[in-house]
Specification:
Alpha-Beta Plaits, Aspartate Aminotransferase, domain 1, Beta-Lactamase, membrane, 4 domains, PAS sensor diguanylate cyclase and phophodiesterase, EAL_sf, alpha+beta
């Protein structure tokens, strides 16, 4: 056992040694693996791996004194030694080692401190630079992060917009009311929208992989084949075309197609076809086209289509000298059916007659309804004999046809005119005029016959003249190329009294200012049904003049206006005349309408009704050309007229012709007996005037009294030739 005092000293020494060694370790970082071990007996201080050259002399001194025992040679540059000593020796060695340690450590520590300070400054500077670099990098990272975030957000927005766009396009593609078809270069269907598939009667996927011709009408296949190839070969797109698409039920769907080429670097080119359904508009257009070329009642072609067909045929056949025949057929006395049973019956007669002629005529090229009661046929490359045979066949069919309506039976006939192209008949106008003239001749010769138009220059010139007048008259009606004239009707005994009575006449004003009389244009107007339009123009213009000249209207006794047979026969014209009279602003009893005896006879029922209607309004009537018919006096019982105008054929020879003079006396006597004024026409000499006064004829009209004059001269004439002045 050891005493306490040595033990405390031993502990104290050990602590100092340990402290010294610890300081050595802190300042000499190359020493390592230091340990203090407690053994049974004295302390052993073990230095492991001491390589400091500054301690080597100390080790050598200890070894020489026998205090240091070396276990062996140096190994790898390291010295291993032992310290084995007692308490006193250990303390001395410890203090000696401490002194050496302090002596070595202080200089080393100063240098170390300087190095550490410099290192610290360098480290601080490096840290500052590093901090700045880090801050810069952090800012750059922050900016890059924001940029990246924005790019990511934009990409997300783009993806979202793209998704929405794709959804919208898909919805548009599938639900749009059109057939959308995408095709590959092999013309096979890659995709078709739901609406399009349903419109064609297929499921959404049924047509995928099929060729486009599967759904195209065979009539349009060649068209669509070229169109698709053009679509693939044209980057600018192609023009629109119309195609008929085939439905699953074999019905056709009219479409308007547009093509767009869709190219992609990594995929096959696609041709997108957009097929708009135009079936309704196509049907409407076809319906309008049909109506424009066809007659509603019979279903035959109309006059416009007839003229177009003839013009086209003439262009083809005339150069090669092949003849063309035109047959005009006019239904005789159709107004008998209309007057007896109404226009519905007349329409039905035409419809049934057309049906019968069509059933028996299988060799004509064209069959048309050229007018109200006119039919026409065209025969190509035919002979005059064949054309006449065709015409006679049609006439016989009409003659044999018995039409029944409401227990009444009718047999009508046809007046037929035939014209063929020839050296003198080469144009549409020529052949139309020739056929119409032949038909007109057939009517004049007694109806129910066939007349072939003679190929004479004189006759053709007359026909051309009439056709030319038709065009002129139509233009004149539209552009007011007519001018009103008047011819006074005089009181023979009091020629210069205040009696103002005149007949309104008309003149056509030619391009050079020449005024043409009705003798030049009335035949064409009557033949082509324009006289009713001329009548309405005269009435409208006259009423307008009277409205604009109230002083003249107040002084006026009677204004006479002629009405044609067409105006009497046409319900529309009669209604228009009545409407104009009703709306006129002057006394109706100053207006007198002249109708010829011939026209009244042909339209007796209409004439009677018309006269009665206008008489109720206050108008007066005159029966023109009186005495030319066998039953002239008899018609006075039916027609309530105010004047009879004795035909000029009786007046011209009144001086030398006893029979004529007797007829005039008789007509004048009947007039006086019935309280009807008598007007003598064609009064052309003073002798005739004297004879008429002697016969007590009240009124006269003719060149010996006054010639026709423009209406613009009317007031001047009456101002100079009457005693009573015109009212102001």
């Amino acid at each position: 056992m050891y005493s306490t005092a040595p033990l405390l000293l031993h502990l104290f020494n050990g602590l100092i040694i340990a402290l010294a060694l610890l300081l050595g370790v802190l300042f000499f970082k190359r020493e390592q693996d230091l340990a203090v071990h407690r053994f049974n007996g004295p302390f052993k201080l073990i230095y492991l791996g001491v390589t400091l050259s500054s301690l080597s002399f100390f080790a050598d001194s200890l070894h020489s004194a026998g205090l240091l025992h070396l276990p062996g040679p140096m190994v790898y540059g390291r010295i291993y030694f032992w310290l084995h000593m007692g308490y006193v020796t250990g303390s001395v060695i410890t203090f000696l080692g401490l002194a050496i340690f302090i002596n070595r450590v202080i200089p080393l520590s100063s240098r170390q401190v300087l190095r550490l300070a410099a290192a610290r400054e360098q480290l601080t500077a490096s840290n500052d630079e590093l901090a700045r670099t880090i801050a810069t990098r952090n800012k750059e990272l922050e900016i890059n992060n924001h940029t990246l975030q924005r790019v990511l957000e934009e990409q997300q927005d783009s993806r979202r917009a793209l998704t929405e766009s794709e959804q919208k396009f898909r919805t548009f593609f599938d639900e749009s009311p059109a057939v959308f078809v995408s095709l590959g270069r092999d013309h096979r269907i890659k995709e078709i929208n739901r609406y399009g598939a349903a419109a064609l009667g297929y499921g959404p996927k049924e047509l995928i992989g099929e060729t486009f011709e599967t759904i195209v009408s065979p009539e349009d296949y060649s068209t669509q084949e070229h169109y698709i190839e053009d679509g693939f070969n044209s980057a600018e797109g192609t023009s629109e075309i119309e195609l008929r698409l085939l439905r699953n039920d074999t019905q056709s769907l009219w479409t308007k197609v547009s093509a767009s080429l869709v190219t992609s670097p990594d995929r096959e080119d696609t041709l997108l076809l957009v097929c708009q359904d135009i079936s309704e508009s196509k049907e409407l257009a076809e319906s309008l086209y049909y109506q424009a070329r066809h007659d509603d009642l019979t279903g035959l072609y109309n006059r416009r289509a007839l003229e177009n067909f003839i013009a086209e045929k003439l262009e083809i056949m005339s150069p090669v000298g092949k003849p063309l025949a035109l047959i005009f057929m006019d239904i005789d006395q159709l107004k008998v059916v209309n007057d007896t049973c109404g226009h519905r019956a007349g329409d039905e007669y035409i419809r049934q007659l057309v049906q019968r002629i069509g059933e028996h005529h299988g060799h004509f090229d064209f069959f048309a309804r050229a007018g109200g009661d006119e039919l026409a046929m065209v025969l190509s490359d035919t002979s005059p004999t064949e054309a006449v045979e065709m015409a006679e066949l049609a006439r016989n069919i009409a003659e044999d046809f018995s039409f029944s309506w409401q227990d009444q039976s009718f047999r009508q006939s046809l007046s037929v005119g035939v014209a063929l192209t020839s050296r003198n008949i080469r144009s549409l106008t020529d052949i139309m005029a020739a056929a119409d003239a032949a038909c007109y001749t057939a009517k004049q010769q007694g109806r129910n016959r066939v007349v072939v138009q003679e190929d004479t220059p004189e006759l053709l010139d007359a026909n051309r003249s009439e056709m030319l007048w038709v065009s002129r008259l139509q233009t004149a009606l539209m552009r007011d190329r007519f001018e009103l004239y008047f011819q006074p009707i005089c009181d023979l005994r009091h020629r210069h009294s205040g009696y103002i009575h005149y007949e309104v006449l008309i003149r056509y004003v030619d391009d050079d200012g020449t005024h043409r009389t009705p003798d030049n244009f009335l035949p064409a107007a009557e033949r082509f049904g324009l006289t009713n339009q001329i009548d309405l123009w005269v009435l409208t213009t006259t009423l307008d003049y009277l409205d604009r000249h109230p002083a003249h209207t107040r002084a006026l006794s009677c204004c006479s206006i002629n009405l044609s047979a067409h105006s009497l026969a046409s319900h529309q014209s009669r209604s228009a005349i009545k409407q104009l009279v009703m709306t006129a602003q002057f006394p109706k009893n100053k207006l007198c309408f002249e109708i010829t005896e011939t026209n009244a006879i042909h339209n007796l029922q209409e004439a009677v009704e018309f006269v009665n209607d206008l008489k109720i309004l206050g108008c007066r009537f005159a029966l023109d050309d009186f005495g030319t018919g066998f039953s002239s006096f008899g018609y006075l019982q039916n027609l309530d007229v105010d004047y009879i105008k004795i035909d000029g054929s009786f007046i011209r020879d009144i001086i030398n012709n006893e029979v004529g003079r007797a007829m005039v006396k008789a007509m004048n006597a009947i007039g006086r007996e019935l309280n009807i004024g008598t007007i003598a026409e064609y009064v052309e000499s003073d002798e005739i005037i004297a004879e008429l006064i002697h016969m007590d004829v009240a009124y006269g009209q003719g060149f010996a009294l006054a010639k026709p004059m423009p209406v613009s001269m009317m007031e001047e004439y009456y101002r100079e030739n009457i005693i009573a002045p015109l009212s102001p």
